[in-house]
Amino acid sequence: MANTPPVLGSSNIILVGFMGTGKSATGRALAARLNREFLDMDTLIEQREQRSIPAIFADSGEPYFRALERALVQELSARNDLVIAPGGGIVLNPDNIRDFSRTGHVICLRATPEMILQRVGDDPNRPLLQTADKLGRIRELLAKRQHLYDAIPLQIETDGKTADEVALEILALLNPPR
Ligand code: S3P
User: Fold this and answer.
1) Which of 5, 62, 98, 102: disulfide with 175, CB 3.0–4.6 Å?
2) Pocket test for ligand 1, best of 126, 148, 149 (most atoms within 8 A of CB)
3) 169 in ligand 1 pocket by Cβ < 6 Å?
4) Which residue owns the Cα nearest ligand 1 atom 9?
5) Ligand 1 atom with the shortest distance to the CA of 127
């Protein structure tokens, strides 16, 4: 493809990060720019399970959801030319990042707790944030997971940026000027 940066080849691009860091919106913008297929893992899981993420958590439990995620990572890592947005908890199992890294570029999107709250605070589709003190819950979950996000070498700050601006930064990261 003419506009695909050569350094990318057919490697997948995987956008990880906490809820509300813009993985899906950025992934869509990036896929459009690269003329690639975009896959949102939560959406794919909902379609296959024929029920929402909150319903999966409520009726089958979080471990069941994590097992679905794990199987999907293995499936998608065997493909290429994809832009993938996993759910924010994908880093909880290091095998997921290991598998994604074998066939793709893993990039971590970051945002402050305040920005995250602004982006997802009212969304009933985040079962882990259904609590009165949402900012407190975001901070608590972030504190538990920060070392896992920090371990990813490629990091991008997203506060105050549009999805397309972040997509352009990702392209610049993956295809540095020579
Ligand atoms: C989760 C993040 C959600 C979704 C589920 C669990 C998490 O995805 O997979 O609610 O553990 O951080 P988003 O990051 O797309 O909101």
Assistant:
1) 5
2) 126
3) no
4) 87
5) 10
Q: Which atom of ligand 1 is nearest to the CA of 86?
A: 15
Residue 169: what residue type?
Answer: E
- Show me where the domains of the chain are located: 12-171
Give residue-wise pLDDT tens across range 83-132.
999 999 999 999 999 999 999 999 999 999 999 999 988 888 898 998 99
pLDDT digits over 154-165, tens only? 999 999 999 999
At 16-42, the pLDDT tens digits run: 999 999 999 999 999 999 999 999 999
CA of 126 to the centre of ligand 1 (A): 6
Report the atom number in ligand 1 closest to the C-alpha of 42.
Answer: 9
